[in-house]
Amino acid sequence: MQHDLFENPNRRERLGFPLIVLLQANVAEGKYRIIAPLTGATPRTPVSRMVPIVEHAGATYAVILTLMTNISVRLLREPVGSIAHYRDDLTRALDWLFWGI
Predict the structure, then answer these.
(1) Residue 62's domain spans which residues?
(2) Residue-wise pLDDT tens digits, 62-88
(3) pTM to 2 decimal places
(4) At 22, is the secondary structure helix, strand, or coil?
(5) The predicted structure's pLDDT at residue 59
(6) How many distinct structural domains can be found in the chain?
C-alpha cells in the first residue's frame, strides 16, 4: 500500500537509511515501485520543504525524497508500519520537488 514502510532491503545502506517508504500509488502495476529512504532525524536535521519529518515507532525520521528510486516488488516483503497519516506532508514535498508549488 502507498506510504507503507519497509525495512531497507539493502543491508549495506540500512545503517544510514533503515527504512524505505513506498510512494507509488496502488493502482500502478509493474515489476517495480517508487520508494524513498528514511534516515534518522535529530534537532540538527535541516528543515526543508522537500524533506518531510515523520515519526514511526517512537523514532523521528526524515524522508529523503531527493534519493527516490525504484525497487523490485519482490524486495518489498512485510511492511513494518505506515506513514499514511503524513500523506499531505509527503504530497506537499513532492509537489515542491517536481512542480515548485
Answers:
(1) 4-99
(2) 999 999 999 999 999 999 999 999 999
(3) 0.93
(4) strand
(5) 97
(6) 1
